Amino acid sequence: MSPLQMTLGIISVLIGVPAWAGFVLAVRRMVRTIRLGQPAPDRFGPFPPRFATVVKEFGAHTRMVKFRTVGWAHWLVMVGFLLGFVTVFQAQGQIFSPTFTWPWIGDTLAYHLADELLGLGTILGGLTLVIIRQLNHPRRPARLSRFSGSNFLAAYFVEFIVVAEGISMVGVKALVIAYTGEHHAVSDFASMNIAEVLPASAAAVSIFAFCKLMTALVWVVVVSRRIDWGVAWHRFAAFFNIYFKREDDGGVALGALKPMMSQGKPIDMETADPDNDTFGVGKFEDFSWKDILDVTTCTECGRCQSQCPAWNTGKPLSPKLLIMSLRDHGYAKAPYLLAGDNKDKVPEAARAEAERPLVGGEDVNGIIDPEVLWSCTTCGACVEQCPVDIEHVDHIIDMRRYQVLIESEFPSELAGLFKNLENKGNPWGQNAKDRLNWISEVDFEVPVYGRDADSFDGYEYLFWVGCAGAYEDRAKKTTKAVAELLATAGVKFMVLGQEETCTGDSARRAGNEFLFQQLAMQNIEVLNGVFEGVEQSKKKIVVTCAHCFNALNNEYPQVGGTYEVVHHTQLLNRLVRAKSLVPVSPVAQNVTYHDPCYLGRHNKIYNAPRELMEASGSTLVEMPRHGE
Predict the structure, then answer these.
(1) What is the rounded CA–CA span in Å between residue 301 and residue 54?
(2) C-alpha to C-alpha distance for 467 and 435, rounded to whole angstroms
(3) Nearest Cα residue to 441 out of 469, 461, 464, 463
(4) Beta strand spans in 231-342 (E)
(5) How far is the first Cα of the chain from the last one, in angstroms, to the nearest whole number?
(6) What DSSP string describes 61-124?
(7) pLDDT (0 to 100) of residue 287
(8) What pLDDT score does 625 carry?
(9) Which region among 97-106, 134-143, 449-458, 551-560 has the lowest average model confidence (pLDDT)?
(10) Do residues 298 and 320 make contact, with C-beta atoms less than 8 angstroms apart?
(11) How many of the other CB atoms lie within 10 Å of CB of 515?
């Protein structure tokens, strides 16, 4: 061993040991910060499906392939980073001995081929991601860039390290080949050609191996000091975030909203304790530990931002920037929260961050501007697109719940909505008896529960008309058309009439959880009376409104009401297939179809409406963004 090799080896150890110690301490700080959150006991099991989801999303990159070029490039970088650590630690040995390799596997053809492919793949993937970032740089109109607002310093640093590591993997291997003269045409197909122009020197191998190791240690040192750099830390946190996602079957956190939780338990209006329960999220530590893991994992890739209808129509909400703001605030405040009784020793910056309200305008220096919070339509595009399964909508609704239930701070338009829902059972404050007005506009019989029928015996479906379907002129056209088609097909159905009230969907998404529960329990009491004595499998409801469908099907079971709910397009499609409905006047023109968020994205119903339209004889022409 030469003096140079000895010197480089000692330096690498003296730098490496404290670097890795700092990394361990950084992980500890991150874990302690995540544990500041409220309990989330439902996120741990069952293990097999959750683990299978991690393997699928990791191995097949199922959440990334929607952006095709990014998908394969990121997969190469991901694999290069994870498995490349094996060659990074090998470099430690190569500093002392240029021919050092791992026992048993280091001299195998498979290991050499894997090393070659990892190095080349990391370079290719890293350069591709650099190019994509430049092509989507905010130097374009900012709203058109999904990277607008992202931390470019962190991104450039990570991308530089990725490409440098790929180059060093190939470079060290080529220098070893040049030094030993040993190679294999299959496993060393690129590096053996590079070796021809490199010096055959043990010192060259040791120096390049030292540079390779130092590149990795620079990454370790820098990210250890910046645990709020999600673009770096997501490569560790993402595995946990995917495992602990809300739906244990691997689905995204759409459909039903997460119930309002306090200390890991759902709160209902009957047992809520204002003195001890947490109503929504009013400060960072009110989030659950999974919520904090969510913001920790954000990669700042901007896929959520690029798909957000609020952002794309000029509103202030960017799901990405919202999550980043929560993360930056939380990790800046964490020293204050972790200090316990020693608050006097907390840095001034952390103390100042702790005094900032979670939601508030510029005059109160809030973390999230109210306009941002109330711009969300809960369409779920952000949740659907996020490659690391962040649950944006649940976080937004939890903050709204606190603003509505505790602070009574919400847009003035909602005051009228809440009052009308509570007093009249519909958003417009219309009289309940007017829910039946549409029936007088049709020339066939529509049985009304309590007036034309006292029980559900002999009926197949309860037709849930909904508020818009009963009161709003455009929606009433759909109501009447569906009722006529059901009558034509011989389907026995009834309606509730004035006994029906709003499902509470709009109240819940506006943060008024208790009003939702009040309306839901009122409806459930009526529905249970209608279905009294009926087998569970025959408690069937058909709806035209996508929001009513989602509430009745996904959210009413949370408060005790379980029924079989179908959308009218599903039922009509079945009737057409069964020849109970036969098109008699083909629609000889092109049509297109806009998937409702709460039918498509939230409930994965894409085919029934399309099949129904095609059965009518029309030609379906899809828009660039359609279906999934």
Answers:
(1) 20
(2) 8
(3) 469
(4) 261-262, 265-266
(5) 61
(6) -TTTTTSHHHHHHHHHHHHHHHHHHHHHHHHHHHHH-TT---TTTTTSHHHHHHHHHHHHHHHH
(7) 96
(8) 87
(9) 134-143
(10) yes
(11) 22
Which token pair is 292? 């904090």
Q: What residues contact residue 355 under an 8 Å CB cut-off, 6+ apart?
A: none
How many angstroms separate the CA atoms of 372 and 385, rounded? 20
Q: How buried is 313 (Cβ within 10 angstroms: 0-12 exposed, 13-18 middle, 19+ buried)?
A: exposed
Residues 565 and 596: beta-carbon distance below 8 Å: no
Q: Distance between CA 126 and CA 237 in Å, rounded?
A: 20
Length of the chain: 628
pTM of the complete model: 0.93
Instruction: Output the CA torsion 52→57→63→64 (10° steps).
Output: -170
pLDDT at 344: 80
Cβ count within 10 A of residue 203: 15
Q: What amino acid is encoded at 490 in this protein?
A: G
Residue found under tokens 């003296």: 14
> Tokens 């306009």 sit at which residue?
371
Please report, as a single letter, which amino acid is at residue 603: N
Burial class from Cβ neighbours inside 10 Å (0-12, 13-18, 19+) for residue 202 reads buried
